[in-house]
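Deviation from plan, reported transparently: adenosine-5'-diphosphate complex.
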Amino acid sequence: MALIELIGVARHYQHGDIDVPALDGINLSIEAGEYVAIVGQSGSGKSTLMNVLGCLDNPTHGSFHIGGQDASQLGADELAALRRERFGFIFQRYHLLPHLDARGNAALPAVYAGLGNNARSKRAEALLTRLGLAERLHHRPNALSGGQQQRVSIARALMNGGQIILADEPTGALDSASGAEMLRLLGELNQKGHTIILVTHDPSVAANARRVIELKDGRVLKDSGTPAGHSLPADAPAELAGTEQSSGLRRLQVQWREAILTAWLALRGNRLRTALSMLGISIGIASVVSILALTDAARGSIEKDVRGFLSGRIPVWRGNSNLPPGAVARSFRPSELDAIRALPGVKAVNVVREMELTARHRARDVGVTAVGADAQSLAARKLKLVEGRYFNELDQVSRTQTVVIDGKARKALFKPGQPALGQTLLLSPMAAAGPATAEVPGQPAAAGAALPMTVIGVVEPDGGGISLNFSGGQVLLPLSTFTRKLDPRLDTDSFNVMLDFSLPPAQVREQVIHRLKALHGVEDFDSWNADEEFQKIQNVTAAMAALFAGVGAIALLVGGVGVMNIMLVSVSERTREIGIRMAVGARQSDVRLQFLIEAVVLCCLGGLVGVALSWLGAQGINAVQAKLEVRVSWTALAVAFAVSSAVGLLFGTLPARRAAALSPVDALARE
Ligand code: ADP
Ligand code: MG
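Because the crystal trials were delayed, the predicted structure below was used instead.
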């Protein structure tokens, strides 16, 4: 069977209701190694025939065989494979890709054959050098003359072998010298065994061929037939060895590389547009990342400063603002504390031994909170020893008159640089200043007399947390000293319910209130649940975060639609490029991949800018305040990347599908 065999091939165009038969029952048989010119008047169907021959267009009727394979029965990908493996196209207007240099254009068909980058470049360079373009490898088409561009397109046609070279008016746009050179090259290729099919309206050009087929109104008017004595090429021409079949994996790798590179070039070629379409994505990602960073920082600061300190306990104290005037709030008795201890969810009840006192050093008087401290107090109050020592066993047993003061008290009582250790403080009840204590009977101990105390240590809040102490500072003394010298009562004015978290804190608190109320007869006490409060704060924070995340999501959505829009524009602008890629053998999946990757790259770039923006924002926030340290985490970066890619995939799908669905011949015809 002949290399090309057409039996009753027809191609009809539909102009509204009118049926235009561009080809009408063509019977043709072309042998391997022939040099055929197709001639005829304008509109006679030459180009249509050429497109059908090159598998760029499907005939409406008839059967059509290439190398024994019935091409009219093939699917889009199989046709792409035929184009890739057998055909080389040379177009009147060259159809080179403007953003690729000569070498890149020549090498293009091998991308879709899966030839590796190096092998591709080497082969393209060799072909271009043979065609006299060794000095022009890195020139873009607009820096090349018409003749040079047409030679680049010859190199491209030969890249994958080019067993059959289809040239539609190849000299039409060239000056006579370049045209003559073109014809010489075609003749040479035919000598080497390539089958050449040339479309021309010019008889002198047709004279170069060894067989002339004349068309008229879509029918063969004259056909000189395969020349007598035509001999099939002895062997495949050298160029046919061009492509080694490469593995699917390798092909995929080559395709991805090319797609990413193309995406990058396309985006770079339209900088302003790229930047603008990235904007929506950037804003969306920036808000999402900022929210993540901010809520993280806020939560971190709550946990660090307050939560760890207060959580796990419910402070209960004597007195309640709802008590009727004149009513006296009772202290808590040991038996009452035992009752609380027995409640479910309660790990322990810690009595707080504190009282407000005046501390004096030399002429300085400061109101301080005196705290009865045991071995656990440093840890419980999140304090760190910075000077001197803490109480030991002996201090507790022998009730030494020693104190450990906090930094605030140190600052209030001592001049900067003045040593505190070894100094004596005089502690005296606040009551000494006025009659305010009259209503609290049985408050004996230090009444009147000032208690001399030796400073043995200084503590600071651990981890720079906020101080919940509004007095002039804290003064810790051994618990034994406290009960002996300051407050010997067994009753207490306040205590902490320590939670074991087997029940929700709010529920424990309710039970405590219920039990104490039963014991006291009235609610003459108050309590506070840190975990409940933090839960409230966190609910508010979460609601805010959700709100901002919603704004971010909307921005992302709008950004995504923007990207889709710009990609659709891009597809219609680059229709001819898509046609060229399809003509040299790109599958629909290759085209789809290319535009999808472009959308994803665009979105990821937008995402990156968004992350950068939020990073800058975080630096700004950190620079103007010290309370909250905002950091953009790697997690945020990963999330941004994942989200951007997802948006790209989602909104790139429609444009990519649209690009892939184009028919090669329509795409090529588009200007
Ligand atoms: P030639 O290349 O010989 O000048 P063509 O093959 O381009 O002729 O066109 C043959 C006929 O088909 C013409 O009448 C033309 O108007 C018609 N034709 C070609 N392409 C299309 C198309 N895409 N849609 C409709 N009609 C077309
Ligand atoms: Mg034409």
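The longest strand covers residues 18-30. We consider this an acceptable substitute for the interim report.
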